[in-house]
Amino acid sequence: MAARIRTLEKHSLNVPGKWLQAVEKLEIKEYGYGIEYYGEVGIGSPPQKFKLDLDTGSGDVWLAGEECEVCSRHKKFNPRKSSTHKAEGRKWGISYGDGSFATGYTIRDTVSIGNLTVPNQVIGLATSESRAYQQDTVDGLLGLSYSGVSFIPGVTTFLDNINKNSLLKEPIFSVYITEKDRNDYAGEYLFGDIDKSKFEGDLTWVPLSTPKFWEIALDGVSLNVEGVGREQIEISGPAILDTGTTLIVMNERQATEFHSAIPSAENSDIYGWIMPCNTDQVLPGNVSFTIGGVDFSVPVKDIIREPVKGLDGWCFSAVTSGASNFIILGDVFLRSNYIVFDRGNARVGIAPSKHRNTPH
Fold first, then answer.
1. Confidence class for position 357, pLDDT limits 50, 70, 90
2. Which of 51, 52, 167, 318 could form a disulfide with 332 if both were Cys (CB 3.0 to 4.6 A apart)?
3. Cis link prior to 153 (omega < 30° from 0)?
């Protein structure tokens, strides 16, 4: 239920020379039942470390400010401890259709991931948060989309500042998500390079439909059941690769079409789409998403989420419905598929992830 709620809630530089171009790895940890993934990001000089949700579906950098009285669970940024802090003071806010929000004001300061640093980045400091954000384990968000997606008008995003100033070895970042191990390692973001040890075969390169979101064309969806065969599901259209969304989100018609292929799945007035928890035994196999003419699979077992409290034998579905003009391929898809986000060439590379069975 938390994943469904969270999914629907969401939806002048001094540049060093070329010799400082970086490759930087950021390990991520998992919160809850794969609800979100976060990494440690530095804000200010010297860096104050925060747990930020890295989100390819948005453009803002924001976290709790000192004045936020309701942000008691979160670490708060202290501008007096940063030599590079600049007051800006514009009003800032993020809000969603269900009423969840964060509001505050803007500053400028350095944002760093290891040795990758972006000075003078516009940052939102929250002075107030809705209950959904107050209860979150992360301290804020680091948007990784193009400029124009930010809630703060006219802002150059963290990603575009990196690209504009050639801070990386290559203008890309790669995302690998896996099941967390005993050390809480749940994957990594690799800025500036591709780790070929993390995926099978070759990358399939797909151009962006709109160089604003990480939007591509989804050619089709099918259900592949062992010993039975392939069933095509009439679902296609624009899709966004979104690390900041937990589930796979479709419009009402598409979600209904998808679940019609799942025996006994139903759309509960209270819980949304649910299915029997043993669906992976009834339908051993995978769901394929066809992109660029290639099938990328998600095991049926990963389409089954956590059990529904009070409904014995029923689990939440990892595919939900929302009022959106595009399909959102969230972490459920990304856990099975390695993604390279290529800002320089306005494209993405996709390949099946390679998951290790040994501890990290």
1. low
2. 318
3. no
Pick the closest to residue 134 from 106, 107, 102 (CA basis): 102
Catalytic residue (one of 53, 55, 136, 160): 55
pLDDT in tens, 300-347: 999 999 999 999 999 999 999 988 889 999 999 999 999 999 999 999
Predicted confidence (pLDDT) at residue 269 exceeds the cutoff of 80: yes
Phi, psi of 251 (to 5 degrees): -75, 175
Please pick, among 109, 160, 242, 342, the residue that the annotation labels catalytic: 242
Per-residue CA distances from 156 to 84, 209, 213 (Å): 18, 21, 14
Host H or E run for residue 329: strand 327-329
193 is catalytic: no
Distinct helix (H) and strand (E) counts, the chain: 7, 28
Structure tokens at 270: 């209270």
How far is it, in rounded angstroms, from Cα 178 to Cα 3? 18
Hey, how many other C-beta atoms are within 10 angstroms of the C-beta on 358? 5
3-state secondary structure of 216: strand
Contacts for 287 with CB less than 8 Å, ≥ 6 apart: 221, 222, 223, 224, 297, 298, 299, 300, 303
Q: What is the DSSP string of 233-245?
A: E---EEEEE-TT-
Q: In whole angstroms, what is the distance from residue 191 CA to residue 208 CA?
A: 19
Query: Helix or strand or coil: residue 162?
Result: helix
Give the pLDDT score at 99.
56
Q: DSSP string spanning 41-99? A: EEETTTTEEEEEEEETT---EEEEBTT-TT-TTS--B-GGG-TT-EEEEEEEEEE-TTS
| Beta carbons of 335 and 34 less than 8 angstroms apart | yes
Q: Within a 10 A sphere around the Cβ of 119, how many other Cβ atoms? A: 19
What average pLDDT does the structure give for the chain? 89
Tokens of 224: 């592949």
Yes or no: say if 216 and 239 are a contact pair by the CB < 8 Å rule: yes
Residue 294, beta-bridge partner list: 291
pLDDT at 347: 97
Does the pLDDT at position 12 exceed 70? no
Q: Is the pTM of this model over 0.70?
A: yes
